[in-house]
Amino acid sequence: MSKEEELAHTIEIFNRVSPDGWDLTSDSSLLGGGQSSVLFVHSPMNGNGVFRLTKDSRPIAKERFKREIKVLSDYKHKNIVEILEYSSEDSEECWYISRRGDNFKSYWDSIRKECGPEALLEKAVDIIKQLAEGLSSLHDKGIVHRDIKPANIVVTGETPILIDFGLVYLKDEERVTPKEQPANNRGFSADPMRYYIDEIVPWLDVFQLSQLLIWMICERPPKGWHSPLSWRWVKYPTMPKHSLEGLRALTAVCSEPDLSPENANELKNLLEELFIHGVIMVEKKDLNQIKKAIIEGKARKLINKSEALDSFRAAFSILKHYCPIKLFEKREIL
Q1: pLDDT digits (tens, 9 = 90+) for 165-195
Q2: Which of 66, 100, 134 marks a domain boundary?
């Protein structure tokens, strides 16, 4: 189906289902929406919205869309997309209308131009904290987004909002995607998501949030963002050394599932303990120790020498001292 045909089809479906009080906007055109066709709409009562229609007729695609509606219709948080109207369970067409936000990539490009490195760090940390807060209650219920990336975030004012729950995983329900099939996004997903993965855990979202933090602050790779970046090799703009080392320590922790915050709430707590107004709250000498230990040890599974493992443990015991939260009480390795 060509873009013109897809647009005509989406408009025809919108007019047929005729959501109460909603009309197409004058600037409405077919937008990129992954597995969905997307149009701008408006309602005098609810303001600007987005009409999203599944464009994949396969049963698995419709089941994913219905699961997305189920999660979002039951959950309200300022940092999670709000759906205002949606199709019924037995409807032939699967659609919903959500509140409209501004493009996050464009928003962040303007922030990068306006802010110096320290201010950029402060804003980036705040955005990650807000998104983590939005995900916290979902993670507590065993619900994992699995597709966090810039394209799946919009902003209203200064508030980031996570959208597109098309790959959402619900712990208490049968899996939609077979275990042997990967469900991920190319640029921000941890390696286990690219292959067979037996257990879907909230850490997968934590990893993607840490990659988002890297994306917001680092100097962009010249060949594009086609896969996750290792915390070791990321090139950041010039900033105070303690801030740079703090970023590397944080993103290193999140990259290792045995040491990482297990869920969004633990990540939020860690960020709040480590950063105040974007400033790392660990003494410079301790961060140097962390950096040295992490570089020597890399990741727990790659450590062969016992002295390197001891050094790795010592580094994270420093973080434990400054971040006395549940996260570090549960890790036997420490």
Answers
A1: 988 999 888 776 666 666 667 788 887 777 7
A2: 100
How many domains are contained in the chain? 2
Residue recorded with tokens 């219920």? 141
**What is the extent of the structural domain holding 172?**
103-329
Burial of 239 (0-12, 13-18, 19+ CB in 10 A): middle
> What distance in Å separates the CA atoms of residue 27 and residue 30, rounded to the nearest whole number?
10
Separation in Å, CA 228 to CA 47, 50, 128, 331: 37, 30, 17, 25
pLDDT 10s digits, 194-216? 776 778 899 999 999 999 999 99
Structural domain includes residue 14:
no
CB 96 within 8 A of CB 72: yes
In a domain, 12, yes or no: no
Distance set, CA 71 to CA 51, 74, 84, 96, 291 (Å)? 17, 6, 13, 12, 40
How far, CA to CA in Å, does 77 sit from each of 43, 81, 263, 280?
A: 21, 8, 17, 28
Q: Is the full-model pTM beyond 0.90?
A: no
Residue 294 located in a structural domain: yes
